[in-house]
Description:
- By secondary structure, chain A is an alpha+beta fold.
- Chain A is built from 16 helices and 16 strands.
- In chain A, the strands form four sheets. Chain A has a nine-stranded mixed β-sheet with strand order 2-6-7-10-1-11-12-13-14. Chain A has a three-stranded antiparallel β-sheet with strand order 5-4-15, with no helix packed on it.
- Chain B has helices at about 45-50, 90-95, 110-120, 150-160, 195-200, 205-220, 230-250, 270-280, 280-295, 300-325, 345-365, 380-395, and strands spanning about 5, 15, 55-60, 100-105, 120-125, 145-150, 190-195, 220-225, 325-330, 365-370, 375.
- The longest helix of chain B is centred in the C-terminal third of the chain and has 24 residues, at about 300-325.
- Chain B is globular, with a radius of gyration of 20 Å.
Amino acid sequence: MKYEVVIGLETHVELSTKSKIFCACGGHSEADQPNDCVCPACCGMPGMLPVTNRHAVELAVRAGIMLNCRINQYATFDKKSYYYPDLPCAYQITQWFHPICTEGYVDVPTKHGVSRIGIKQIHMEEDAGKLVHDDWADVTYVDFNRTSVPLIEIVSKPDFRSAEEVLGYLEKLKAMLRFGGISECEEGAMRCDVNISIRPEGSTELGVRSEIKNMSSLTAIERAIKYEVARHIDAVERNTETLVQETRRWDDMKNRTFAMRNKETAADYRYFPDPNLMPVVVDDEWLKEIRDNMPATIEQKTAEYASMGLSGQDIASLVSERRLCDLFDAVVASGRRPADTAAWILTDCAGILRRGGKVIGELDIAPEALSYIIGMVDEGKINRGVGKKVLGAVIEKGVSPEQYVKEQALDAKVDESLILDTVKTVLTENAKAVSDYLGGKEKALQSLFGSCMKVLRGKGDPAAIREILVREIEKLK
Amino acid sequence: MNYFVTEIDRAGTVAVDDTILVKGCEAKAGSHILDGFVPLFSSDAVERLVKAGFTLRGKTHTGEFGLDIAGETSYHGVCKKADGTLSTAAAEAVAAGAVKQALCVDVNGAPRRGAALSGVDFLKPTYGTVSRYGIIPTACSGEQVGVCAANAEDVEEALSVIAGHDGKDGTSLPAEKYEYAADKDVAGMKIALVKELYDAADEGVRAAIDAFRAKLEKAGATVEVIPVTDVKAYATAWQIMLSAETCNNISRYDGVKFGYRAPVYKDIDELYVNSRTEGMGFTAKMNVLFGSDVLSKNRYMSCYDKSLRLRRLASEKMKEIFAGFDAVLCPAMSALSVPAYDLAETFERTERELLFTTIPNLTGIPAMVTGGVQLWAAAFGESTLLSIAATAERMAD
Lengths: 477, 397
């Protein structure tokens, strides 16, 4: 018999806010020591009260708009109770009764065309802390740095029919959320619970479902789905086991899933509305403000850049990172030519970063600095080679381009007589190369040109230097 | 009799109960489970008092998490009246002149009962007017810091300092300051006497109400007996919410982070169970059991959700009453004196006494105890309560 796979995803995404969702602690991702980024509130001390982070609500609404959701202008925060040492209050604040967004969808490109995946809801919640077990001392330590970091949980409908669709969806989600400034989606900042069941093809009833908890790697998700499908089909066809609705854990080393202890999953979370948090009311004015401040989507940026005449490859490179687009837009806005700016970013900056073992996504340069360098080159104050040298110093050493150019006297006017003197000196000092050239070895000219450039320390217009060099060497014929 | 679980300054004039945090001063909330917990910050109410020049005398004994009738469940010491009957340490400290004012958290009426038993005043202000930042939480949706003092003027003096917006409390109302007055004219006021509550109290209480009623009428007010037929349902609703929220709030005392940790355990589950079994008293445990039950999947709709609906009905009922009356008069508890009794009865006894004190906690309206009786007013009607109390206090018995 042929089977159809039915999968639904619950995806937890960390929001890029400056501070936690209900207190003012910030910078947990940069904290290098455990419990560096905590306060009495996120440690669960009695007497502290939660106050909602407005920006977290805005980012959740923004995610809802991007995923075509209905924005619920009345949402509540509710308490979910369970005991675990990484949860300092023994309850997590989440949205159970009235989530912020419901009923959306996202279109996912696959080999077989576009699949539309329904979004059941997006709700906001706080993250839990982290337990670190020391096997040597047999102690478990608690780190609350991550406690109360804002999350959104994006709950899909059971609309996936293959692992390919799941991966396509997650990749698309990641790109959208990063580009929309909603989440950095860094390693571990996007975690999934995968709900999976099978049914005979053509059936409309849902089979027994298992939920694989807390997956963060795409390859593991793909392998876990394949394993679960095989396990379910074996159970149905060969009676290898009786399927029960349960929560399972993926073991990456053993390459299979395991049922979690019933105790871990049978909890009654005893949800109720948190009386300390007023309902979140996104009124028309606030909603309009959020809509008006929506950053352009990848699709919009792609169209905009195409209309500027950028190549498809350059566009794809730029839209791979929001910050590259921001840099590009700012430099172009300062009056630089689009194609030229793209080349400076994607060829020159990327080359300099690569030299230091970094990727273009890590580029960190002020748009003013880049625009200044391009301007100097455009106006002929320095040549492009010198421009690159300045760019390298700016990126690698963090110097200001103005100061660097001045210190190195790179913009000093090189008059023709200096070039002529240099060319003459080089010609007399490199008799071998001169005779090679005159003997028909064209390549020797390049070596002489290089020597001139070296003496001039990169200053002067290369075209002019080459012209004078050729003129002078021809005289020697 | 020692009123204080912790002394701060013998020259101080204000006491705070042990569920209100004072920076650097161990806070036990009448429970063993909080042993050794020293807060890193003071409650907003305490901050305001200190800033205004008030000095703290010490922290008064309170029943476990303030959930009992009148402080009888404290792990650290129970305050009794000279005749051996119960009252709260805060009310007794005020009655004895040890302090001028005492701040108490009113979540189930204990400070009001204490004031009635000790013959002093206590005012629980409108929900949201005094910040709840820095009070050990039980039922957040109805708890409020109030002021206990010997007379209405002294209540007003401290209340006007502690009330006002606090950005650290998401339920704090926006007004920066509240102006209270204890000199409104009582003549012409219309007072409602709740029949069901009057009938539920004993003879002594009814006599106190009759005497108070006579004073009001002498001062030119009119008193009319009205029915509030659902008082019992409201009390049950608050009992459900109180237990549910308390169960949730005291779940954090698990022996992991601070407070009492059992000396013997073999894994995390035992650490939880042993610490809580040894650290919590009977009242806390009853609230955990009852609260877990009413929030469970099977009961949520029939218990907790229904209580939320009853809260709305109670609010509507109060609006209806205050459209025609300036204040409500009723008993603060069933008797004017409570003998010491077996603590295992606390939970049920408190439930019975909640009949008299629930509505202000459930709906957020202000309530005041004076001369052994209780008064309610519409939201922000503190001045009405203070004026009635001050007028009655000026009149000889």
